[in-house]
Amino acid sequence: MSIGSVNTFRAFNSNNFKYYFAGRSISQFGRWMQRTAVVWMVYSLTHSPFMLGVTVFAEQFPSFLFSFGGGVAADRYDRMKIIRWTQIGAVVQTSLLAILLLCNHIVVWEILCLSVLLGIINAFDVPARQTMINEVVQDPGDVSSALSLSAAMSSVSKVLAPAAAGIVLQHWNAGICFVVNAIGFIVVIICFSKMKMKPYEKRVTNKKVFTVFKEGILYFKKAPEIGLVILMVSLIGLLVLPYDTLIPQVAKVTFNGNAATFGYISGFVGLGAVSGTVLLASLKRGANLRFYLILSTAVLGIGLLCFAFTTNFYLALLFVVLTGFGAVTQFTSCNIIVQSEAAPDMRGRAISILLTAIFGMLPLGSLLIGFASEHIGSQMTLFIQGMLAIVIALIFYRRFFPVKKEKVPSYAKEPVSSEM
Predict the structure, then answer these.
(1) What DSSP character marks residue 251?
(2) pTM value surpassing 0.90
(3) 105: left (phi over 0), alpha (psi -120 to 50) or beta
């Protein structure tokens, strides 16, 4: 029995997806090593949770500004070429980080500037890469499996890479993490070059970018069921998902730990994320993903509530598994809903609007969470985030699954006569 015959792994029936998966796996491992190293460096230099928020803001806010342009490019131009150029740009970005650090010439403003550059690159890379999944699977029904497996791969990287980065940071320096990331981007270029895709057909259009942008916004008026999902994820992105901004502070202050401690906590977040994405990949076709979107948001809130005031390190690892499960499962569910329900000619713009919402809310939320932590502490901030996740889950549960009113028989509406 081949692996593709198992429902969870049915996307591997497509050879192109195998190359796609292999390239992204190695790239994601390097990317998570770099993110872990950058966040820890900034906190080590500044000892400020607010600066952690600024670091996340520097990378993600440019993605918010340019991601719709990236979505338009994904709908108009050759996605393979877009990905090739973004990988080259990412190699340059991470190589500059490695050179600066290995030369012992690294300061916070340099990290922030290079984070901005990476954010701009991601604004064009992610929409092209996400929408390409529809082209690398043979059966359109395997898209949900492909998306879930891709998210699972990213989550596995989130388990292993932060732990590996923690060990590297403890015994050597962050430059090695950056070198590994640069190699990962090169591997992506090699793997994608081996994919046998249909020849690119140039899309002829005289529409201006603003017109295309307007079409994307108006599309969600025609498809409010998709817009409501994106609204929910936007709120989660602003108020809840930036919890990871506080993990370096929790590792160092609450558990008196070091870079390895931070790596272990981040790794167990990724372990929960793997569990969630494997669950989604195993679902049968036609499963109600909105139910799993609500469920995962509630689990995210419960995980944060328990993690907030835990002082036992091993219990904390258990609770961050729940947190990782909820965080990644709710985003992956939303991604599958948008990709599977959006019209083919609007898919790139729909994904870019989703990413615009996420990249727009996450950096603002990181600043908000960093500011709140400075004033009320990381534990109380995490507790409030957990409560907000549960409230949002309850509100949108009522919107997705309204209570059906029982029809009252017509005779019951007639007034009862008082005459005998």
Answers:
(1) I
(2) no
(3) beta
